[in-house]
Amino acid sequence: MAKILKPNNNLKPCKSCHEMISKTAKTCPHCGDDAESNIKIVMGIIGIIIFIIIWIIIKSMTSQFEQDIQNNIKAYENQAKTMQKKAKEDYKKMF
Ligand SMILES: [Zn+2]
Q: Are residues 41 and 80 in the same domain?
């Protein structure tokens, strides 16, 4: 008696017949309907797809950023080489 009156946290209403069924039940024992919502699965798949898209965007952005840094380094290296060359020529001219 007391057991029935106690609210059971392991139970949830079935989406089809609204009978109380176990939260862990894959199918409803009353109507045989899928207890696990298909919407949840679809939302999960959409979530994964969105996550992959964001990851690809971030990845491409970072690679572009890395490319920019590499280009800057190359530009500075070329500048340094030119300056070094010029300094050597100037040194030769002085003596
Ligand atoms: Zn049911």
A: yes
* Predicted local distance difference test score (pLDDT) of residue 95: 77
**In the prediction, which pLDDT does 50 show?**
97
Q: Residue 45's domain spans which residues?
A: 37-95
**pLDDT exceeds 80 at position 13:** yes
Q: Are residues 24 and 42 in the same domain?
A: no
Q: Is 21 exposed, middle or buried (0-12, 13-18, 19+ CB in 10 A)?
A: buried
Distance CA 29, CA 31 (A): 6
Residue 8 CA to ligand 1 centre (angstroms) = 17
**CB-based neighbours (< 5 A) of ligand 1, an ion:** 14, 16-17, 28, 30-31, 33
If you measure from the C-alpha of residue 44 to the centroid of ligand 1, how many angstroms do you get, rounded to a whole number? 23
- Global confidence as pTM: 0.39
